[in-house]
Amino acid sequence: MSERKDRAVDKAGATAPVTHSQPGEIDRFLGAAKQLAPLVTGQAGRLVFALDATMSRQPTWDLACSLQARMFDVATQSGSLAVQLVYFRGIGECRASGWVGEPARLIGLRRRIACEGGQTQIARVLRHVRDEAKAVPVRAFVFVGDAMEEDVDALASLAGELGLRGIRGFVFQEGHDPAASAAFATIARLTGGAHARFDVNAPASLLDLLRGAAAYAAGGREAMLRLAGSTPAVKGLIAAMDGGKR
């Protein structure tokens, strides 16, 4: 299957082709993403990797950039993996890359994106995952964030749709914001996934969580179980998934 076009995610959750008439960092990011190795096989596991890129996220954005290559090392041991990067920031900006068969090559692209102030757009991310899954099989999504400024009931409804489709959500939270904790836990539970906190000052904590999600997307539960033997954080993800079954 060839790589789909990079595009903006609109507020209704649909997608539209990205134009390049106005130069800037975002246009260069999307243009470069088109040059990445396209997804060759429809049998690869698919993971949507979504990040909050509002201003409070800059330290963790930088951390995630530095960890991304190591995150996907485990996927090469569990099976093939295709990744799509989604992020939101600023006033109503939410973007998605194409599906990329060599996930580590997104690292340099992500480093070109600076965080900007704005409110969370988690509902748009969830709608985007739902809509992508109508066209291609999506096994899981990761969301990394620290805040939630939306209608939690709307998020729960979208998460329920994803859960019915068998799309697991791995929601990784920086900090202890109570509204975010409640919403993230709900999203994880309704998708049959897992919610976990990490410490930005302890990079290994986020790396282990990301590796667990990548392993699931590439090889399913069996791949996670193999990784859990040496990674306690992945054991915690499995326990959270088991506890969240409906």
Provide a compact summary of the structure.
With 246 residues, this protein is of the alpha/beta class.
Please outline the helices and strands.
Elements: E1 7-9, E2 15-17, H1 25-33, E3 45-52, H2 58-71, H3 73-78, E4 81-89, E5 93-96, H4 107-110, H5 122-135, E6 140-145, H6 152-164, E7 168-174, H7 178-191, E8 194-198, H8 203-228, H9 232-243
Helix pairs in contact: 2-8, 5-6, 6-7, 8-9
How would you explain this protein's 3D organization?
By secondary structure, the protein is of the alpha/beta class. It has a single domain, classed as Rossmann fold. The chain is built from 9 helices and 8 strands. It has helices spanning 25-33, 58-71, 73-78, 107-110, 122-135, 152-164, 178-191, 203-228, 232-243, and strands spanning 7-9, 15-17, 45-52, 81-89, 93-96, 140-145, 168-174, 194-198. The chain has an 8-stranded mixed β-sheet with strand order 2-1-5-4-3-6-7-8, with helices on both faces. β7 (168-174), α7 (178-191) and β8 form a beta-alpha-beta unit. The model is unreliable at 1-5, 14-23 and 32-41 (pLDDT under 50).
